[in-house]
Specification:
heterodimer; A: 136 residues; alpha+beta; 4 helices; 32% strand; B: alpha+beta; 29% helix
C-alpha cells in the first residue's frame, strides 16, 4: 500500500452562519468569522493503493490534478463560497464542512479498482487545518 | 472522521542535563545541548482534536476555546521561559523535546478532561517541532 498526496490552492471568501439561528446568536458564536472574509485555502488530497505493475503508479497524477481542479479549485477559486458555491448557500462553510464537501466531490471520481481516496487535508491558514477521511 | 489541527508557536530555552550523571558524562552524551547557560528554540506545538462536527455549530470545537485551553495549560508558563528553571515538571526531568511532548500531552489531557468531561470530540494527538527539521508526535490514547 502506497499513499501519494497532491496539493492545490484556491482563494475564496466565506462567512459562518447557521441559518436556523438569530443574527445575534451567530455573531456570538462565530465572532469575526460571521463577517465576510477570505483565505488562501491549501488543499492536500491523499490517495492510497497498490502501484500498478504496468505503469508504476497508483493514479495518473495529471488526472488527479484535473479532478481536483474540475471539481473544486476551478469552481471555487476567487469566489464567495456562501453566495456562489452550492451547497454552501445552505451548509455552513466551516473548514470542517468544506473538507467534507471536498471529500464528497472527489471520492466518486478518484475511487477505482486499486486506488482509493484516503484523506483530505484543508488548510484555512498555515496554522489551522482539518483532516477528513471515512473509515474504509 | 474529522480532525482539526491548530499550530501554536512558542519560544523557550532548555539545557539537556541528567543530574545522576557526571559533568563529563553529560557533556559526552548531550554535546552542545549541555552548554551551561542553555539555548533556545522556536518550537511549534500542533494540537489535534477529532470526532464529528456538531451539525448546528458545524465545527468540532470553537477555536478561541481551544486557544484558551492551550494558552492556560501549556503556553502560560513555558513560552519565553527557561524550562529547566521555570517549568515545575523539569525540576527533576531532562527537558528533551521527547519529555516536553509528554509533559505537554499530559497537561492537555488533564485540562481537556476538566473542560470537556462528556464531549464526544476527543483530544487526538500532538506534534511538537523543536526546529524545522525535528518533530515529535504523540497519540493521546497512548498517554
Amino acid at each position: 500500500m502506497v499513499q501519494i498526496t497532491r496539493k492545490a490552492e484556491f482563494s475564496a471568501s466565506h462567512f459562518l452562519r447557521n441559518p436556523d439561528w438569530s443574527d445575534e446568536r451567530n455573531r456570538e458564536t462565530y465572532g469575526v468569522e460571521a463577517q465576510t472574509h477570505g483565505h488562501n485555502w491549501v488543499l492536500e488530497v491523499t490517495v492510497s493503493g497498490a502501484v500498478d505493475p504496468t505503469h508504476g503508479m497508483i493514479i495518473d497524477l495529471k488526472e488527479l490534478k484535473e479532478i481536483m481542479h474540475e471539481r473544486v479549485v476551478d469552481v471555487w477559486d476567487h469566489r464567495h463560497l456562501n453566495h456562489e458555491a452550492p451547497p454552501f448557500n445552505e451548509i455552513n462553510p466551516t473548514t470542517e464542512n468544506v473538507a467534507r464537501e471536498i471529500w464528497n466531490r472527489l471520492q466518486p471520481e478518484v475511487d477505482r479498482p486499486g486506488c482509493r481516496l484516503h484523506s483530505i487535508r484543508l488548510y484555512e491558514t498555515p496554522d489551522l487545518y482539518v483532516d477528513y477521511s471515512e473509515a474504509a | 472522521m474529522t480532525r482539526l489541527t491548530r499550530r501554536y508557536p512558542f519560544s523557550a530555552s532548555h539545557r539537556l542535563q541528567v543530574d545522576a550523571l557526571s559533568a563529563e558524562e553529560n557533556r559526552e552524551l548531550f554535546g552542545k545541548c549541555n552548554n551551561p547557560y542553555g539555548h533556545g528554540h522556536n518550537y511549534v506545538l500542533e494540537v489535534s482534536v477529532a470526532g464529528e462536527a456538531e451539525p448546528g455549530f458545524g465545527m468540532l470545537i470553537d477555536r478561541a476555546d481551544l486557544d484558551q485551553l492551550v494558552r492556560n495549560s501549556v503556553l502560560a508558563d513555558i513560552d519565553h521561559r527557561d524550562m529547566n528553571a521555570d517549568v515545575p515538571e523539569f525540576q527533576d526531568l531532562n527537558p528533551t523535546t521527547e519529555n516536553l511532548a509528554l509533559v505537554i500531552g499530559r497537561r492537555l489531557c488533564r485540562a481537556w478532561r476538566r473542560q470537556y468531561p462528556a464531549s464526544a470530540v476527543r483530544l487526538s494527538r500532538i506534534r511538537l517541532e523543536e526546529t524545522g527539521r525535528n518533530s515529535f508526535e504523540l497519540q493521546m490514547e497512548n498517554l
